[in-house]
Design brief:
By secondary structure, the chain is an alpha+beta fold. Helices cover about 35% and strands about 15% of the residues. It has 3 helices and 3 strands. It is elongated and about 60 Å long.
Length: about 90
């Protein structure tokens, strides 16, 4: 029985280690030049989301400044818009 459980336990421990280090999809969703911004707007405006689900439903969005980017889901696009004080002009599933 121990021989059958050991590979499964090793796999689960490896998965837990990846998740605890932050190997989730969120690190891949942001462009390299996109630096983390404060959670709240500097002028005391609305608070931006800090967390999004890692469900893969890719969207490509155009923002009010003309910037176009692809995100793993709509939540990441909205977080980007909030943190950079932009409006989403359009978003389409990829």
């Amino acid at each position: 029985m121990r021989k059958a459980v050991a590979p499964l336990a090793t796999f689960l421990l490896a998965c837990a280690a990846v998740l605890s280090v932050g190997g989730g999809a969120s690190a891949l969703d942001r462009p390299a030049h996109d630096r983390p911004a404060p959670a709240a707007a500097p002028d005391g405006g609305r608070e931006c989301a800090d967390v999004c689900s890692t469900v893969w439903l890719p969207v490509r969005c155009v923002f009010s400044n003309g910037y176009t980017a692809q995100f793993s889901n709509q939540c990441f696009a909205e977080m980007h818009a909030c943190r950079h004080h932009l409006q989403i002009v359009s978003c389409h599933r990829v």
